Structure formats: C-alpha cells, structure tokens
Fold this sequence. Notes:
The two termini are 22 Å apart. The protein has helices at 2-14, 18-24, 26-41, 48-73, 81-97, 102-126, 131-148, 160-163, 175-193, 195-205, 207-212, 217-243, 254-264, 276-296, 300-324; strands at residues 168-169, 173-174. 76% of the residues lie in helices and 1% in strands. With 325 residues, it is mostly helical. The protein contains 15 helices and two strands. Helix 3 (26-41) packs parallel to helix 14 (276-296) and helix 4 (48-73) packs antiparallel against helix 12 (217-243). Strands 1-2 form a two-stranded antiparallel sheet. The protein is globular, with a radius of gyration of 21 Å. Strand 1 and strand 2 (173-174) form a beta hairpin.
Amino acid sequence: MTVNIERNEEREARFPSFKVILKKYNLFFIFLGFIIIGSLLSDQFLSVQNILNLLQQSSFVGIISIGMTFVILVAGIDLSVGAVLALTGMLATLMISSGMNPAAAIAITLVVGAALGFVNGFISTKFKVPAFIATLAMMVSARGLAFLTTDGNPIYDLPPSFTALGGNVFGKIPLTAIIWIVLTIVAVIVLKYTTFGRKIYAVGGNAESARLSGIPVEKYVTWCFIISGTLAAVAGILMSAWLTVGQPTAGTGLELDVIAAVVLGGTSLFGGKGSIGGTFIGVLIMSMIVNIFNLLGLSSYYQSVFMGVIIVLALIMNQYISNKK
Length: 325
C-alpha cells in the first residue's frame, strides 16, 4: 500500500495533472485570462503604446506594493502609504523648487520616508498598538502635513533634471516601470535567498515560535515598516516627477489599491505566506481591469463595482485552492 502511494506521488511529480497545475499556477491563469478578455474586447489592448501606458500607470502602485508585501508577510498592515507618498512628494518638490540639488533633495526625502515607516513600526511593536490603528494615525497626520507644507497649493516649475525621472528611456519605455521591475527583482532575491527574508516568513508564520527560536521579532517587523515607508517615498518622488508637479492630494485612496493588489497576488493577511512575484502579477491584473474599462469608455463608477467583484471572486478562488492544498 505504501509502495503504491509512493509510486503515485512520484508519477504525479513527473507528470502533474491539470488540477495540480491549476492549483500551482492559478494566479498566472487569471492573468492570462484577463489578457485574452482585453484583447477580445479592444484591438488597442495589446498595442505597444497601451502596454507601455499600462506599465507606467502600474509602477506607482507596484513600487508601494513591494513594501506592503513585506508588512503583510509579518501579519501587519500599512494604511499610511498613500499619505506618505503625498507628503514625500511635496517635500521633494518643495526643496527642489527652493533651489536645492535634486539628488540631495531625493536623498533627504527617502530618509524621511524611512523615518515615517520607523515610527509606524516603533509604535506598533513597542507600545503594542495594532498596526491598523498606528498607520491610520500616520495616514491622517501625513496627509495633513502634506497640505500644511504649502497651504494646500501644488508646486510647479520643477527643473528638467528632476522631471526626467518620470520620463521615458530607450525610446518609449517608462523609467518608472524599469525602476519598479528592478525593485521587484531585488525584493524577490531578498525574500527568497537571504536570511533576512527567511526570518520575515518565520515571524509572519508564527511570531511566538520565531521569538523562542531567537529571532528579534520586533526588529524585523519594524524593518518591514521602514521598507514600506521608503518605497512609498520612492513612489512619491517618481509620481511628482511624472506629473511635473507636487500635489498634496496625490495618492488619495491608494493604500486600498495596494492592499488589494498584494492580497490578490496571494499574500495572506494573516502573515507568513506570499511572494513578491505574486504581488507583481496582482498589480498588473488590477491595472488591466482599469485599462480595459478605459478602452471601452465605461464610467469609473462601473469600474469600482466590477473591480470589487473581481477582487472578491479572485480571493475566494485563491482561498479555495489554498484549502485544497
């Protein structure tokens, strides 16, 4: 009996069934399905220009989603990313418009983003405040500071040396998309091939077991929030460069899109399970849905309703497949 079971397992490992393939690559099949639907509904969907536009529009959510993946992997949540994007974008453009060297302004802005992330992590871990509440408070505060920097007025007349960050390279390829892809590759390597990444999964899987095994849980949770804050600042800088204006209302509601993309990509809200690759595809799926609706000329109200339905259905399917595993 045992021999037969082992033979069946060996046979399935060599020649996996369609059900096994579907369980393993379900997110890819969803992604492929939307590509097919989009190409059938609009002949512009697979055009080079539309694909480049899709990458451009996805990059800001994509960059922040990398940091959010780290936070959710340790069973946290960061509601402040949209407000941090706005605040850091305003800070960078304010310093640059005042005559500061763009490189120095960007460096300072990244430090501010990391500091805001540290505050989120410190409050959450040291004072045992739920991450939902700590980051909600940061969201309100950072948004208020973004408006206070210029009394709610946008910042214009930014130098070309800065706005070039939001432009294209190698012809028509968006620089923001290249940065997103590079950051995704780096994050994949960190989570999959480093001790730091393995300990993040351990903390998210079972914090108490991780603590008993000698892992400084609070330190790793705080680092995840620092990564999230830093990447929100990166997105804030790039969005300001792309829009060629510092806008205090930038990123409003963005945190919901980011969380949805991360969870859609297979990362568990309970922590310990997920991947950056899944998040990358989740971001693209979210962007494709919006893109298809825009190409069809449908109202944004329909987009919101349909987006919610798609997210719920995708999550139900992911949960079902996960339970079957």
